[in-house]
Amino acid sequence: MRDRILIVDDESSARAALELLLKREGFDVKSATDGESALAECAAFRPDLILLDIVMPGMDGFEVCRRIKATPEGRLTPVVLITGLSATEDRIKGINAGADDFLSKPIDINELLARTRSLLRLKQYTDELENAESVLLSLAYSIEARDPYTRGHCERLAEMSSQLGERLGLPEEHIKALRRAGIVHDIGKVVIPDSILLKPGPLSPEEAEIMQKHPTVGERICAPLKTFRDVLPIIRHHHEKFDGSGYPDGLRNDEIPITARILQISDVYDALITDRPYKVSFMPEVALDLMQEEAERGWWDPNLMDAFREMILEKQHNGSNGHGNGNGNGSKPIQ
Fold this sequence. Notes:
By secondary structure, the chain is α/β, with parallel strands linked by helices. It contains 14 helices and 5 strands. A 5-stranded parallel β-sheet has the order 2-1-3-4-5, with helices on both faces.
């Protein structure tokens, strides 16, 4: 499939010249005469690259660029601003709007083609990366769908974990990793048979050994993606315990990455307040009390437990109640 390029320029002669040149080079080209039509073409044409004039009547190129980059579909689409402006502040304004590159008028044809091909190569790499991430996320959701008791678990985990991370002032890259890990943390369960995954009673030692392989399997599945670098420790270590009795590495205390400890607490809480094959759901207050006892026993980070309890109770106070719908009093250790 040919790369798609959108030209946005209110000058018909400049627009026609660029369109002719790029079509001759084998690109699929469309054009727009102003900002509004450019945004409409972006939605319909889904360009791989946008050549955008800055000085236009009505909405200027800066604002068009800003709006394109604000959409999920356009945030990774390269935008080249074409300008006769040379002042540094105009380039800074373009960078702040999200522009990926600049071309000065009059346009040098060789420079235009070189920059276009370079940005399209980067866009192809980005698309491949996004496709790989999409496959992993789809796999994670399909694993969740195997168990009707865990419907919505991944989304809830991503939300709770990232909110706790923000509350603790973690860096943005850790917040992003927590969101991703919430979705893919159990992706290694793809190798667990349903007879074990959905078993209503306690697991045998042999079954427990199989179940405990899923963090390392999940880590191996996600390892090829460099963008998941900060996610891998969360996947591997979200079943460790603060006293060293967890798996797969028996880490203790601060040896366990803080992001893994955050996801772990969210995971346990969500398991307690939802129905599972081996237990009915607990009310949020009961679940928090049980987790507090487990923290005192040495399982969970007590400082994180305090912050998590505070966050959940605040959400309840503000009207966002927990989603538990039962008041059971029997449980099995979270697998």
